Amino acid sequence: MEKIFEVRNLFYQVGDTKILKDINLDIKKGQYLTVVGPSGSGKSTLMRILASMLSSTSGEVKFDGEPIETYEPIQYRQRVSYAFQQPTLFGKTVRDNLKFPFEVRKKEFDESKAIEYLQMVNLSADYIDKSVNDVSGGEKQRVALLRNLLFPPEVLITDEVTAGLDAENKDIVHKILSEFNQQGLTILRVTHDESEIEDSVDKIKIRNGEIEDD
Ligand SMILES: Nc1ncnc2c1ncn2[C@@H]1O[C@H](COP(=O)(O)OP(=O)(O)OP(=O)(O)O)[C@@H](O)[C@H]1O
Ligand SMILES: [Mg+2]
């Protein structure tokens, strides 16, 4: 399989603190890679670098064969989408959030598509008019995830996106992500969830800023 990411000798340092140390990693197109490791080990930092939201101190990241810095950030974000560990909703209503992916692409908002996506994550059609202040934590995570998926990227990075969800809604999210993965989406999933870790086929562990062999 073709490589979508090639990471070579990557370091990330803040002051004297080395947060990531000599990371080397290949990710294949279509892979569903689970990233595990203790809290504070550097998982989100690595994901933010791959999402081009943070620059490494040294080393190289290639996306689709080219250094990550050569891509135009707005276009890059449409190809590599990061679902945050602690998402925030913006604007006034859920609609404002689901409209956003259309706006950045200068497309007309497709309300029926937005509603269809809400229903996919177990939220009813009337949710679209719900105030962002009245949305629960677990609902917020699902709405935020839809922002990432309405126009599927090539790579989706999910950073503990199921952490606040009950078993039923976790399963819904797992099912959707599997379906997108089967259609070719590359997924990098950061998780502490025992059952997700057990179910994962491809897995890397980060400990103390380094990739640890199992
Ligand atoms: N800008 C920064 N300045 C100083 N320290 C930072 C900075 N960003 C991250 N860190 C530190 O780097 C380490 C790795 O953080 P990171 O968020 O990547 O961990 P994580 O593996 O995602 O943890 P968790 O599982 O709790 O989400 C932590 O010790 C964190 O405090
Ligand atoms: Mg994290």
UniProtKB/TrEMBL annotation:
Keyword ATP-binding in the entry? The reply is: yes
InterPro entries from the xrefs?
AAA+_ATPase, ABC_transporter-like_ATP-bd, ABC_transporter-like_CS, ABC_transpr_CbiO/EcfA_su, P-loop_NTPase
Q: Does the keyword ATP-binding apply?
A: yes
Name the SUPFAM superfamilies on file.
P-loop containing nucleoside triphosphate hydrolases (SSF52540)
Its keywords, alphabetically, are: ATP-binding, Cell inner membrane, Cell membrane, Membrane, Nucleotide-binding, Phosphate transport, Translocase, Transport
So which residues are the signal peptide here?
none
- Domain AAA+ ATPase per the UniProt entry, residue ranges: 29-210
Q: Where in the cell is it found?
A: Cell membrane
How does it sit in the bilayer? Peripheral membrane protein
Question: Which biological process, per GO, is one annotated for this protein?
Answer: phosphate ion transport
Single GO cellular component annotation? plasma membrane
Q: Which Pfam families match?
A: ABC_tran (PF00005)
Picking any one GO molecular function of the record gives:
transmembrane transporter activity
Query: What is the protein name given in its UniProt record?
Result: ATP-binding cassette domain-containing protein
This chain's source organism reads Companilactobacillus halodurans
Upper lineage ranks? Bacteria, Bacillati, Bacillota, Bacilli, Lactobacillales
